[in-house]
Amino acid sequence: MKIDVLTLFPAMFAGPLDESIIKRARESGLLDLRVHNLRDYAHDRHRTVDDRPFGGGPGMLLKPEPIFEAVENLTSEITRIILLSPSGRTFNQAIAGELAESKDLLLISGHYEGFDERVREQLADDELSIGDYVLTNGALPAMVIIDAVTRLLPGVLGDEESAHEESFSHGLLEYPQYTRPADFRGMKVPDVLLSGDHAEIARGRGEQALVRTSERRPDLL
Ligand code: SAM
Predict the structure, then answer these.
(1) 127 CB less than 6 Å from ligand 1?
(2) Which has the closest alpha carbon to 105: 134, 76, 132?
(3) Cβ of 6 below 6 Å from ligand 1
């Protein structure tokens, strides 16, 4: 999968996406990630990407010209163009799964007070928020989405099962899990997990996932 990111802060992407599973996905070619500086598409002396809003109000808005030019340069007819914005639909595991089916994504990351509305209307196929709070810019939301989507690409996770058995994959939170020792300071692992009875273990885990979800996230049920 190819993911392009348009941002004013390309340097923010070094680090989080250069470690562990995402690093391996990039090295193996499963993820082709390209981070582009929006300023490269601004052609005046100061490489201006923002301006004051018509009608007044605080802050600055991202101008349409550099974003339109970048999109025209970076996309093809198969690219899904996603604007990162607190006004978008809230990103979740189901949307991550949907995006993982795409071959080509462009994530457009905002700054200041956000985008000129024409970017929204004319360019975006989708608008995503990572939650009901406001961040200073869209680099962290872009990285969250890239991470969540990449780990769903076939071949990225070592154990394919781990993406199927976890929180949200069946609409539930994950069941509680334990590792050795079976008795730690008197806190014991449930007997069923030591029983070797796989059908019973699966039944118990299903039950626990349901209990946990109804206690913590009844909205998912
Ligand atoms: N004025 C905007 C509003 O009230 O919705 C907030 C702009 S925010 C300071 C700057 C940029 O950060 C946004 O254009 C967006 O790209 C990104 N951003 C901030 N919070 C976000 C969130 N929760 N989800 C996705 N992107 C976000």
Answers:
(1) no
(2) 76
(3) no
State the pLDDT at residue 162: 77
What would the pLDDT profile of 167-213 be if each residue is shown by its tens digit? 998 899 999 999 999 999 999 999 999 999 999 999 999 999 999 99
Which amino acid is present at 65? E
Ligand 1 atom with the shortest distance to the CA of 83: 16
End-to-end CA distance of the chain: 32
DSSP assignment string, 116-168: -HHHHHHH-SEEEESSSS--SSSHHHHHHHHHHHHTTSTTTSSSGGGGTSSTT
Tokens 């490269």 sit on residue: 40
Question: Of the candidates 99, 85, 114, 111, which has an alpha carbon nearest to the alpha carbon of residue 31?
Answer: 99
Both tokens of 54, joined, read 């018509």
**Res 160 pLDDT > 60:** no
Return the number of other C-beta atoms located less than 10 Å from residue 71's C-beta: 20
CB of 165 closer than 6 A to ligand 1?
no
What gap in Å lies between CA 124 and CA 106, rounded to an integer? Answer: 10
Mean pLDDT of the chain: 96
- Domains, the chain, with CATH or none: 2-150 (3.40.1280.10), 167-220 (1.10.1270.20)
Residue closest by Cα to atom 13 of ligand 1 = 110
